[in-house]
Design a protein that fits this description.
By secondary structure, this protein is mainly beta. It has one domain: Jelly Rolls (Sandwich). The protein contains two helices and 15 strands. The strands form five sheets. A six-stranded antiparallel sheet has the order 3-4-5-13-8-11, with no helix packed on it. The chain is globular. The structure holds 6-O-phosphono-alpha-D-mannopyranose and zinc ion. Zinc ion binds next to loops.
Length: 194
């Protein structure tokens, strides 16, 4: 069998001051308009979007072949802020290949990883500098910034895992994280339909 062309090692450097990765790889930015339907307070979304379109998060994907033997990895940051009472967060996704996991090392900031299994169970873990969060196969995952500085984390997953947003774009996740009296609280998503 013909051998795949040898892939050369890569070093990337994250700058904790500028919050940039060098080389940047593929930079993906998500503004509120990319995920407006995911927040609960649709009136608030409309009000904000009439004035501007805030950046909610961005991530730097190191460019790696999307094949099983490789490990995709990226640096992501969710900016601080809220839409009404709901904290800024990532869209969240299952993996296209459901049986693939992901590990997250938080580098900076405060947050929660909201996970939901294909069977509908929820698990929520704290994210803060130094936490290593393991997302097992068949758990959707979303990161929520509950602090007042960027939530920055490194994530690594199987090269061909892929992203499946479909179910979350249609239904959202069962649990949402809101701010009440200055603190994050877990609530049932009123818009989630079984
Ligand atoms: C993490 C990883 C990426 C993911 C990114 C943004 O860095 O899990 O694979 O793309 O967060 O999250 P989402 O794709 O849900 O918008
Ligand atoms: Zn993932």
């Amino acid at each position: 069998m013909e051998q795949e062309k040898l892939f050369r090692p890569i070093n990337s450097l994250f700058d904790f001051t500028s919050l940039e990765l060098n080389p940047p790889g593929e930079l993906i930015v998500r503004n509120l308009s990319d995920m407006d339907f995911m927040y609960q307070d649709q009136d608030k979304v409309t009000e904000i979007l009439q004035k501007n379109d805030p950046m909610i998060y961005r991530f730097y994907n190191v460019e790696i072949p999307e094949t099983a033997g490789h490990l995709q990895h990226c640096i992501s940051m969710v900016f601080p802020g809220k839409i009404g009472q709901e904290y800024y967060m990532t869209k969240g996704h299952f993996h296209e290949i459901e049986d693939t996991a992901e590990a997250y090392l938080t580098l900076r900031g405060q947050g929660r990883m909201v996970m939901q299994s294909t069977e509908g169970e929820t698990d929520i873990k704290e994210m803060k500098k130094g936490t290593i969060t393991y997302v097992p196969p068949r758990w959707a995952h979303r990161c929520v910034n509950t602090g007042n500085q960027p939530l920055v984390f490194f994530a690594v997953y199987r090269g061909d895992a892929g992203h499946n947003y479909g179910i979350i774009e249609e239904k959202g996740m069962k649990k949402i994280i809101l701010e009440e009296e200055g603190k994050p609280v877990i609530k049932d998503n009123p818009r989630y339909e079984n």
